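Supplementary Methods. Inverse-folding protocol.

Structures were first reduced to a discrete structure-token string of length 360. This string, shown here, constituted the complete conditioning input.
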């Protein structure tokens, strides 16, 4: 854990400062899948309209929304010729909604680089230039950046930093990016920020390779690495932002949608994840609180280490520092969400944005 946390801190660096002397910038297609995003998409479109980049297009696909998402996009498109609205086609058999939306966007894109991002994200004007500079500087075929996670309610503040910690402190990211490594199965990307060469996307099959994956972004990154392409990861939290969920119910349902699929619907992997989450994130604090005993001092040391790692993550990625000291509670909530995720997929009782969740 300590090693992974340290290595990932070194790996997830921020893109370089703007090169103000550069003249030529390849065309970038910004691709935004949107389903029932009327209440969220405005900040995203405002950011896209204000990009300080000379050669880009913005394609927004209305994925058969039941609200006014399309009308909001049209109102922006009237005043900005770069923004175009696409109407999503009916979901084919064997596809999940988001991969299908992304595949349609990629087919319509004209850029040398494709930038997939979500409707609940927003980006500062320098985003495209700095991202391209980083991708070129690393010789990357694809780049995924960690966005700043906005948390405003108690449930967001407790659970979202714990979710991030499970990736930042336990994922052997540097080894996962090596096509020859046995850890390449853990390679992943963030669906909030996927930057990839179009020819590379087409070469390995793009979103068609993850067409039935609910957590398509994690599996998408693995496909990139397995195809022999160079994937790079970084920290874009100073210019790209996301508020994944806006209330406790959305947090509960959103992570319930992702937890069990993230371990491949494998009960053994799920139980192992639960053991690590509870033994690492909850048990040391419980033992330390019980007072002197044979495990007291090791528990205190481990608890202090965990809080130190969380504090460094909060400082680097600007998570709420108060949630650091509630780490055990956040881990417990995340564990309960995991069990609810299993229940959802075993009983077929889960829905997301009007579509029934189902195992692939």
């Amino acid at each position: 854990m300590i090693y992974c946390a340290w290595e990932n801190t070194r790996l997830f660096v921020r893109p370089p400062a703007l090169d103000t002397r550069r003249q030529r910038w390849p065309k970038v297609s910004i691709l935004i899948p949107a389903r029932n995003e009327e209440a969220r998409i405005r900040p995203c479109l405002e950011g896209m309209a204000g990009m300080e980049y000379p050669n880009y297009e913005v394609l927004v696909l209305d994925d058969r929304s039941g609200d006014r998402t399309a009308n909001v996009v049209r109102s922006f498109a009237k005043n900005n010729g770069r923004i175009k609205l696409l109407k999503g086609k009916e979901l084919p058999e064997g596809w999940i909604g988001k991969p299908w939306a992304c595949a349609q966007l990629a087919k319509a894109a004209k850029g040398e680089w494709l930038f997939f991002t979500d409707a609940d994200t927003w980006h500062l004007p320098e985003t495209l230039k700095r991202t391209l500079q980083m991708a070129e500087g690393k010789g990357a075929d694809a780049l995924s950046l960690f966005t700043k996670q906005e948390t405003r309610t108690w449930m967001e503040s407790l659970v979202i930093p714990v979710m991030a910690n499970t990736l930042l402190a336990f994922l052997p990211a540097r080894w996962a990016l090596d096509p020859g490594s046995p850890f390449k199965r853990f390679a992943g990307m963030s669906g909030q920020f996927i930057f990839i060469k179009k020819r590379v996307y087409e070469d390995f099959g793009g979103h068609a390779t993850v067409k039935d994956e609910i957590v398509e972004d994690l599996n998408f990154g693995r496909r990139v690495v397995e195809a022999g392409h160079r994937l790079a990861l970084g920290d874009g939290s100073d210019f790209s932002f996301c508020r994944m969920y806006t209330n406790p119910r959305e947090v509960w349902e959103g992570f319930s949608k992702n937890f069990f699929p993230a371990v491949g619907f494998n009960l053994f992997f799920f139980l192992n994840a639960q053991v690590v989450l509870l033994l690492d994130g909850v048990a040391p604090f419980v033992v330390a609180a019980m007072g002197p005993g044979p495990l007291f001092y090791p528990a205190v040391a481990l608890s202090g280490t965990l809080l130190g790692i969380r504090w460094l993550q909060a400082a680097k990625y600007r998570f709420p520092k108060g949630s650091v000291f509630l780490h055990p509670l956040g881990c417990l909530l995340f564990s309960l969400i995991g069990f609810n995720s299993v229940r959802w997929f075993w009983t077929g009782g889960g829905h997301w944005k009007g579509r029934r969740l189902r195992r692939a």
